[in-house]
Amino acid sequence: MDRLAPFVSDPFDQPPCRGCSSYLMEPYIKCADCGPPPLLICLQCFTRGFEYKKHQSDHSYEIMTSDFPILDPNWRAQEEMALLEAVMDCGFGNWQDVANQMRTKSKEDCEKHYMKHFVNNPLFSSTLLSLKQSEESKDLDTAITFRPSDEPPRPAFDSALSRDMAGYMPARADFVEEFDNYAEWDLRDIDFVEDDSDILHALKLAVVDIYHSRLKERQRRKKILRDHGLINLRKFQILERRYPKEVQDLCEAMRHFARLVGPTEHDKFIESQTLDFELRKEIKRLQEYRLAGVFTFRGARVYDCLKVHREEERLKRCMLTDLLQCLQDSTACQQWLHSDSGINPVTPILSSADGAGRRNAPPLNLTGLPGTEKLNDKEKELCQMVRLVPGAYLEYKSALMNESSRLGGLKLAQARTLIKIDVNKTRKIYDFLIREGYITKA
């Protein structure tokens, strides 16, 4: 039986005959019992009864040719394929270039045939219409998927945003460095040839199967990152900080199981645990009011104010008791003055005496922030006191160290021109780096 041969514009791109190694010219023979890969021979080798390995001369065969009409009696199948390839190469409407590439038809013939059989063909239009109607009926009762029209972010390579996103490129949906990034190296030297033994062929197929499994694992991990919103870890951590400390610990513990459920189910679970925690806290507070004999919300406000006042008085009595115990021993008195209990009560008194009336901001919590593991204990303490994230501190430190090594020393004014932040924070960073020996003072 005749079969449509694959169209190849260049005869030298045709596969060679297995018998005589000459370039195949249509029509040629394909063995129906052998393959893959297919065994192709020319007519001369077929008439001689050519046999090769498992191929026998009595096998079923197919005649591969494209010398027959499909849509028009005057257009052969090979010319139909040549027209479609020429339109793909030259573009729709460039009929002169299409005719020059085909060489067998004129410009008018190409345009007339293409418009008649591939554009205005009622068979094709009805098929496309039915496909469109079936697609619309299928999506009639389903929700419309939201697709944002904004351009995806394209952070510069090695920028702060790119590092925060772990090298993720949203426009390509790929990472700069993928999971199992060198999985393709195992395939670079593999080549399937006809003369391979069965064992070697099976071994190569096993390597390809292993590579496919590694690709599936890469896609699985990437899907988890996208579905759960873990691309931008800093934004994810900021969202987690709105929860109480107990719920944050639960999020950290349950994060390992998030991949087993969908992102919506995981978020619902965390939100339900947050609601449960808040309800339990509120119930405990109401029980405390009931035990204290409070039955109205106005009485509850008075009770809270008195409770705060009693706690302050208790701290003052404890501090006075400690002071009286240390008066008899000068060494114990000095230790008490330098301890937290001796210093902390003095600090707010001094600040209020200055008339500023400002409350000091609490130290920054560095838990989970990127770059924290690169800091030593003193640097962590500095970042907490000046409320500076570790990533920004490392950038400022690197810039100041490079400038100091280039100039042989660095002044405070020069440091302030390099770091565009609060001048008090710049002074603290500058003094810390000089004290620790990272930079030298000019």
Explain what this protein looks like in three dimensions.
With 442 residues, the chain is mainly alpha-helical. It is 54% helix and 4% strand. The protein has 18 helices and six strands. It has helices spanning 43-47, 77-90, 95-102, 107-119, 122-138, 160-164, 198-227, 233-240, 245-254, 263-291, 297-326, 330-338, 340-343, 346-353, 377-386, 390-407, 412-418, 423-436, and strands spanning 2-4, 28-31, 40-41, 61-65, 168-169, 174-175. β5 and β6 form a beta hairpin. α2 crosses α3 (95-102), α3 (95-102) packs across α4 and α9 (245-254) packs antiparallel against α10 (263-291). It is elongated and about 120 Å long. The protein starts with a strand and ends in a 6-residue tail after the last helix. Residues 139-149 and 340-357 have low confidence and may be disordered.
Number of strands: 6
- Helix-residue proportion: 40-55%
Provide the residue-averaged pLDDT. 77
SS-based class = mainly alpha
Write out the strand line-up for the largest beta sheet, numbering strands in chain order. Answer: 1-4-2-3
The helix count comes to 18
State the separation between the terminal residues, measured CA to CA: 92 Å
Helix and strand sequence: EEEHEHHHHHEEHHHHHHHHHHHH
Blueprint of the fold:
Blueprint lengths: L1 E3 L23 E4 L8 E2 L1 H5 L13 E5 L11 H14 L4 H8 L4 H13 L2 H17 L21 H5 L3 E2 L4 E2 L22 H30 L5 H8 L4 H10 L8 H29 L5 H30 L3 H9 L1 H4 L2 H8 L23 H10 L3 H18 L4 H7 L4 H14 L6
Parallel strand pairs: 1-4
Antiparallel strand pairs: 2-3, 2-4, 5-6
